[in-house]
TrEMBL record:
It comes from the Bacteria. This is Sporulation histidine kinase inhibitor Sda. InterPro entries: Sda, Sda_sf. Signal peptide: none annotated. Keywords: Protein kinase inhibitor. GO terms for molecular function: protein kinase inhibitor activity. The keyword Amino-acid biosynthesis does not apply.
Amino acid sequence: MRLLSDKVLLEAYKQAVELKLDEQFIQLLLKEINQRGLSLLSESYSA
């Protein structure tokens, strides 16, 4: 899933949670976030 930048990945996760998308999709995004060592607490993905 390295085709997404870190910023886009974090934004996709944030939107997926807000829109209550499929839990498996959210978990897939979360797995990739964790593999990249990114933090969901970071504000680096906010506009």
